[in-house]
Amino acid sequence: MGNVRYWLLGEEREEIPVRLIYVSSSIYEGDWFSLRHSHNFSELFYVRSGRGNFIVEDEIFPVQQDDLVIVNPNVEHTEVSAGTDPLEYVVLGVEGMSFDFGDQSENRNYEIINYRHQRGELLFYFNALLRETENKKENYEAVCQNLLEVVVINLMRSSDHPFSVVGSQRANKVCSRIKRYIDSNFAEDISLDSLSQKAHLSKYYLVHTFAKYYGMSPINYLNEVRLRASKELLETTDLSISQIATSTGFSSQSYFSQSFRRSCGLTPSVYRLQTRKQVQ
Q1: What is the rounded distance in angstroms from the CA atom of residue 170 to the CA atom of residue 167?
Q2: What is the model's pLDDT at position 104?
């Protein structure tokens, strides 16, 4: 008889930062009203059968059997069946992570991917998660956590749409680092491309996550920092408007003047005159 042994390399890997909140199974038959909603965790919808539409933010996407819909936290969404072929799907609610779909994705903070070629494998895991949560046998929560990690790994390596998982804690640290970088280097030539490279995140994901923590995009924050610095220079120095624009990172004097007027309602020159009159 033959005997083949495959040794595991024992390489350490970064643990996927996920926590399963719930598993549910639904059939949308038009007997309840579908409202758009959002929440502070991610959801994964696997369509077991049927056809319909998925409404995400202000866009409508058709969905069918074996489509997986991934929706990141704080993104409005809902689902609607089409005709007499109702949607039947399994939903996983997952806390502590978001999905970064990369700059190639036009679907931004959500994605729809068809896994018909991996149907047997994925359905096995999704159905196993349902059984575990329904039966609640000993240590079922630990089993579900491990099954969820297997599902996420399989999704990432089986898809033609590359994406990665970003833990909430890591995202917070990355955004903090980007904010500190802007605070210290605002006078340099900074773009969204360069910031996303430093963060090792896609541009859209960086914008969405930064805005979640700081209430504005990184580029808007950069402009605010530059404008704050320019106000101080206008108030305390005799530098020309052109010199102030250059020293605070604006690409031109005209762009600086436009940005300043849009923010303050005054041109830089008028602002300087008014602040100096107040001091006198």
Answers
A1: 5
A2: 55
